Amino acid sequence: MQPSRTSRRTFLKASAAAAALAVAKPGRSDAWGVQLPRVDGERLNRILAGFRSFGGTPDGGTTRLAFSEEDIAGRAYAAGLMRRAGLDVFTDLAGNLVGRRPGGDLGARPIVIGSHIDTVPQGGSYDGQVGSAGALETALVLSDYGVALRHPLEVVVFQNEEGGKTGSRALVGRVAPFELEIETASGFTIREGIARLGGDPDRLAEARREPGSVAGFLELHIEQGAYLEAAGTQIGVVEGIVGIRRWNVEATGVANHAGTTPMDQRRDALVAASDFVRAVHEVATTTEGRQVATVGKIEVQPGAPNVVPGVVRASLEIRDLSMAKIDSVFAEIEARAISIGEARGVAFAFDRFYESLAAPTDERFRQIVEASADALGYSHSRMPSGAGHDAQSMAEIGPVGMIFVPSKGGISHSPMEHTEPEDVVRGAEVLLGSVLTLDGADWD
Amino acid sequence: MQPSRTSRRTFLKASAAAAALAVAKPGRSDAWGVQLPRVDGERLNRILAGFRSFGGTPDGGTTRLAFSEEDIAGRAYAAGLMRRAGLDVFTDLAGNLVGRRPGGDLGARPIVIGSHIDTVPQGGSYDGQVGSAGALETALVLSDYGVALRHPLEVVVFQNEEGGKTGSRALVGRVAPFELEIETASGFTIREGIARLGGDPDRLAEARREPGSVAGFLELHIEQGAYLEAAGTQIGVVEGIVGIRRWNVEATGVANHAGTTPMDQRRDALVAASDFVRAVHEVATTTEGRQVATVGKIEVQPGAPNVVPGVVRASLEIRDLSMAKIDSVFAEIEARAISIGEARGVAFAFDRFYESLAAPTDERFRQIVEASADALGYSHSRMPSGAGHDAQSMAEIGPVGMIFVPSKGGISHSPMEHTEPEDVVRGAEVLLGSVLTLDGADWD
Fold it and tell me: Mind listing the pLDDT tens digit of every residue in chain A (444 residues)?
């Protein structure tokens, strides 16, 4: 038998805080025998599936491009759930959807949770959406159980994560004016898109939150890799979001007639570039650590079957939790390129065009996530996030934590993207437990 | 003192044929002390330079796209020279410019000489043009010296060699109807182009010459490779035009997030394709013979710096004088691809999309070219032609021979294309000598 809503609220106001001082265990009874809040797994997966009404495709995937009709409808759906959870709902000047509830301690800064719901074209139904559904369910559970937190709570559905984390970056004052004119996959510019969502692109600067203005940010997300699944681990405790450096690589040989140029007289830029691609793969694979290095793009000039390639342009990307490690891996790759170039009569040039600094999560948040998983009996493991996330932006204004759940086969950005319903529930339970624990932690 | 035109003609009618029974030595005296015809080197190089009035560029190159205004003007210039050489000039139904003089033996089939004057965009001033100028000069010399040949002589400036040897292929009935609708570099379709040159695209079939209808075809051309220059040899005696086979190669791995997919879990199509490119180069380089193999085109999907390549599409081209050799080299490459695919978890598929059969020159023609070069004191060497030429089409209706002169640095299809004036003269002298020898040969 469940207590009435009013009595539950009275009880839990105290008990949640008390439990949080130790570790909140959603769904268990606390020392006083009170039923602690727990995730409604069925509802959670229904919310997640509900998003598929907006851009879901017959193959199980979702195309909900930022700023599209589907995005706008999906956000309205999320706003309705926020209202059901008793949150005050508004769209900020950057176009992020925010649901807010006050905290018991008037001086406490908000705990922010959330993710995104926009997808890449022909994307999956889990990326961003699991974290958004998990945050919405967390707010619903707190409402159901009448839990009054010490901190204000904000649930945020960031805008345009896939197109450059625009919403979260605007929140930390990082969107450059020129970006507003970029045309996104939806066909709308970011400027138009922000206005479509209800933001004001001309007042973007006012969307900025000050560093230190939040108690912390917690994001639940699918792993998008196969690490957890391969290890049979249920929860990933994210150590940080890897830094990224990208280079344009140009290999210049001599274009020549493929019929009249003997093999030993060629300075074939593609043969040299092929040596390079192999070297990149080998250096990244054999160096100790979890760095990854990728050549994802390659173009040949003139690019005809009957012409020995004269110039190859390729991309090089290296990611690691340590920027210094990225540098040392690059140094090794560059040295290999020089040797390859000498052997093949081809000149290599590198031009760095992109950098994203590594964003470590807060050690206290990692421990809270671990303790929450432990309390629930879930296996967990620390791991880097190879992908970028809104948490990376939020790390600029406060401590962040991230919770990963397994992605089937590590497949993401694809209709084949999948996370088991029970893993979705486990992730949301750890998120709820972490929010409760964070709310009761004495360091904020 | 030169004999008058009339007396010269009388003398030479007999002496040329007599000399040809041995080996014609242009510019020398024959056994009876008669001055034999010789190339006017200065005029020849003036004719060649004259073509540069039509599409020549300040960098020394030429852009005279087939069917363009420059092409039409260049052909009018060639027609004028043909008339000066006393030839009957007409444009055949395929748009080839033909200059014809009758032979003394009414039953003899024509000796055909010539090449093309169209160029690739930003092409050179020698490819095709040296052979065309050489053929025109040959006709002028025969006229100057009043040489009456036993065979009719035809000088042909083929149309659209660079865009697919359309003119020479039409002459042997090999142009498929769909080709007429292909848009060429000039912006005109081949159908439009043929009409622009004065041919009739609707009566193309009538342009066809019957197999056995010509005594032979001789083409002078620049090597477009660096073999002669590197060897210090003056004349290349072409053994044949290499056969070509081309494949579309598809390597299918698994596209994945470049941040979240550990190195050891990748099935990177580009890493496998890079192994493949190297294998192609290695097999072609280490196998005995003069085969060449090239990967000139490569495309990656999805082709983004932050995505592990899922699919790579590339071209593979193999050339050799022997089609069987092409097959055996391909078999070795294919076997390597299978091993690579197994090691990298990537599937390779090959789809042959183009074939051009090897066209050997006639052994008797090779000997005539060699004997002509010997008579002139020029060094010579047998060699394959790695590039395709109009002679390749003509081989379908009669015996062919080809004479190569050195290309500086082997550079072709570029404004830097260059052949020394004295090499141009040597080539034309061997052409003239070969025509005279062929005219007198007793096997036709």
Answer: 343 443 344 334 434 443 444 455 555 555 555 567 999 999 999 999 999 999 999 999 999 999 999 999 999 999 999 999 999 999 999 999 999 999 999 899 999 999 999 999 989 999 999 999 999 999 999 999 999 999 999 999 999 999 989 999 999 999 999 999 999 999 999 999 999 999 999 999 999 999 999 999 999 999 999 999 999 999 999 999 999 999 999 999 999 889 989 999 999 999 999 999 999 999 999 999 999 999 999 999 989 898 999 999 999 999 999 999 999 999 999 999 999 999 999 999 999 988 888 999 999 999 999 999 999 999 999 999 999 999 999 999 999 999 999 999 998 889 999 999 999 999 999 999 999 999 998 666
Reduced to 3 states (helix: H, G, I; strand: E, B; else coil), residue B347 is strand
| Distance set, CA A14 to CA A32, A102, A330, B137, B398 (Å) | 11, 16, 54, 107, 103
Q: Are residues B194 and B301 in the same domain?
A: no
DSSP A37: P
Distance from CA of B174 to the nearest CA of A (A): 21
Which site among B263, B280, B288 would you substitute to test the A interface, given the most A Cβ atoms closer than 10 Å to its Cβ?
B263
Q: Taking CB atoms and an 8 Å cutoff, what residues of chain B touch A242?
A: 259
Closest CA to B112 of B168, B57, B152: B152
CB contact under 8 A, B224 and A260: yes
Number of domains in chain B: 2
User: Are A128 and A79 found together in one domain?
Assistant: yes
Question: Residue A169 contacts by C-beta under 8 Å, 6 or more apart in sequence?
Answer: A175, A393
Contacts of B224 in chain A (CB under 8 A): 257, 259-260
3-state SS class at B54: coil
Predicted TM-score (pTM) of the model is 0.77
Residues B388 and B344 in one domain: no
What is the domain extent for residue A263? 243-356
d(CA A395, CA A212): 10
Interface test with A, best of B223, B245, B257, B316 (most A CBs within 10 A): B257
